[in-house]
Design a protein that fits this description.
alpha/beta, Rossmann fold, eight-stranded mixed β-sheet, about 55% helix, 6-PGluconate_DH-like_C_sf, NAD(P)-bd_dom_sf, OxRdtase/DH_put_Rossmann_dom
Length: about 325
């Protein structure tokens, strides 16, 4: 089935940038019944391969892709987006929707395209694309965030309503916070897992064995958080109040990892403290997060001497 814009012409989606994100989204949109115009890219061979993988057309020049597309996705590195915006703006973009797929840049990086008549958007899939051969079933469960020219009957909104993925609208001013959230749970979590795996490798395991050993623990924890939330998934020595275990951890941690351990452990105490506070029906100030955190922590360490000792150690209090 092909979908139409405003009940008229078929929506045709084109891509500038035949990389992991572009090819994966192109394959997915085709999988969901959308029609692709095709791909344009600096490397002709890569663009031809992307067109072949998505059963669409390879374009030698950007103007032909513009003419034959209703929606254009720019799926290139961030540094190239403004360059492409400038190139697109040389043509008539009336009735075109131009999107970039960066989560860190606002839609207004495409201001030249807007001046040439286009509706502009930042459309970011909340997913880590590590391959052009992304599992299409996995993509059915991802969210997209959209920022830009949100209007009635917007082709972009129609597109996502048709393919069925959940999405939310974000404000331009929130772009940095939004992208930070993605980086913390994706890139920086990868870094944290690397640090933890390296400690297991100190016992003589290679990286593959260490990861395979830790995989059920990692996956089980993530599944629990997604199913039950953070506070109901709390486990470990910080939560149990195992002071001796925390001291042993601090004694074997590399110097550069000690502050990280303490900061993350304090956050676990905070999550636990809020859980205890809510269970005790203690009222919190909805307008003052810092005051609530202090109140919750105070409530926890007042009632539990072992958690008070752990808190003092983590905060460096003698």
């Amino acid at each position: 089935m092909l979908y139409h814009i405003y009940g008229g012409d078929t929506i045709k989606i084109g891509f500038i940038g035949p990389g992991k994100v572009g090819v994966s989204l192109g394959r997915y949109f085709t999988h969901k019944g959308m029609q692709l115009s095709g791909f344009y890219g600096r490397n002709e061979n890569t663009a031809k391969a992307a067109a072949h993988a998505t059963k669409s057309k390879f374009y030698k020049n950007i103007h032909e892709l513009i003419k034959e597309s209703n929606i254009l996705f720019i799926t290139t590195p961030d540094d190239s987006i403004s360059i492409i915006d400038n190139e697109l703006s040389k043509f008539d973009l009336k009735d075109k929707s131009i999107c970039h797929a960066s989560g860190s840049l606002q839609s207004n990086v495409l201001y030249n395209a807007k001046n040439s008549g286009a509706l502009i958007y930042s459309v970011h899939p909340i997913f880590a694309f590590s391959s052009k051969n992304t599992n299409l079933t996995a993509l059915e469960n991802i969210y997209f965030s959209i920022e830009g020219d949100i209007i009635e009957n917007s082709p972009i909104i129609k597109l996502f309503n048709e393919i069925g993925n959940r999405y939310f609208i974000r404000n331009k001013i929130d772009s940095s916070i939004y992208h930070l959230a993605n980086v913390l749970v994706s890139n920086l979590t990868l870094s944290l897992l690397d640090i933890g795996t390296n400690y297991l490798m100190k016992l003589g395991l290679n990286e593959e064995d260490a990861l395979n050993a830790l995989k059920p623990l990692i996956k089980g924890n993530i599944d629990s958080i997604c199913d039950k939330g953070f506070s109901n998934s709390l486990t470990g020595p910080i939560v149990r109040g195992d002071l001796s275990t925390v001291k042993k951890h601090l004694s074997v941690l590399d110097n550069q990892d000690q502050e990280l351990y303490k900061r993350l452990s304090i956050n676990l105490l905070k999550i636990m403290a809020f859980k205890e506070t809510k269970a005790g029906n203690i009222s919190l100030d909805v307008n003052n997060d810092s005051s609530n955190e202090e109140m919750a922590i105070t409530n926890l360490i007042t009632k539990s001497s072992k958690h008070l000792e752990i808190y003092n150690i983590l905060e460096g209090v003698n």
